[in-house]
Fold:
Amino acid sequence: MEDDAEGKRKKNFLRALAARFRRRKSWLVSRFITKTTGPSAGSEDAHKQPWEVCEGQFTQAQWEQFEEYVRSDEFQVNRIYIYLIVNLVMKALYIGIHLNRFTNPVLCM
Structure:
């Protein structure tokens, strides 16, 4: 039983770590590539490069490779595909919830 609890903790930890990694990547893209978000007013990091802001996490060469990938057609196609799938799933869930409300007598009360 303790093994199962340890496995759950590890799974939850890895899930949280993956979520933080995705948020960080999204922040990097929106701040330095698409420039949809900017630095805070009066921030010391306002004029720094991404590899300077995230010192020790990646090098300039790694950043350039990442930026090239984000600007690639392959990335854009995957991004659009994921956006469409997520929207279809959300709409299906929304429709399913509303249909269930009318077909399930318990939910109609």
